[in-house]
Amino acid sequence: MLSGTRGRLASELRRTCTQPSAVARRCLHASGSRPSADQNKRTEKTPRTFDPALLEFLVCPLSKKPLRYEASTNELINEELGIAYPIIDGIPNMIPQAARMTHQSSDL
C-alpha cells in the first residue's frame, strides 16, 4: 500500500513540475523574463559605461570615504587606502576582495 501511495505522489509531483500553471505562464510572459533575440542583440552592441553621477552616492565600503573614477583603468579609486575597485559592464564591483592595491602601504 505504501508503494502505491508513493508512486501516485511521485507521478503527481512529476506532472506539476513539468507543466507550469496558466498563472505562472502569464507572470513569466508579463515580466519579460525571456528577452527576445532583438533585445539580446541590442545589449551586445552597446557596452555599458559607468555613470560618474553615481560617485555622489558611492563610497568605499571599508573606509566610507568618497571614491574617484579613473576612466583609463575603468576603476573606482580610494586614494586614502590605495585601493582600486573594478568596474565591470558599467557596474562597480565594491567587494573588497575584488579590489586591487594601487600602491604598497608604508605602515608595515
TrEMBL record:
- Keyword annotations of the record: Mitochondrion, Transit peptide
Localization per Swiss-Prot or TrEMBL: Mitochondrion
Q: Which stretches of sequence are listed as region Disordered?
A: 25-48
InterPro entries the record matches: Trm112-like
Q: Does the keyword Transit peptide apply?
A: yes
The UniProt entry's coiled-coil ranges are none
Which Pfam families does the protein's record reference? Trm112p
A single Gene Ontology CC annotation of this entry is:
mitochondrion
Q: What does this protein do?
A: In mitochondria, S-adenosylmethionine-dependent methyltransferase chaperone that supports both coenzyme Q biosynthesis, by stabilizing its components, such as COQ5, and NADH:ubiquinone oxidoreductase complex (complex I, MT-ND1) assembly, by stabilizing complex I assembly factors, such as NDUFAF5.
Protein name according to UniProt: Protein preY, mitochondrial
Its source organism is Callithrix jacchus (White-tufted-ear marmoset)
Lineage at the top is:
Eukaryota, Metazoa, Chordata, Craniata, Vertebrata
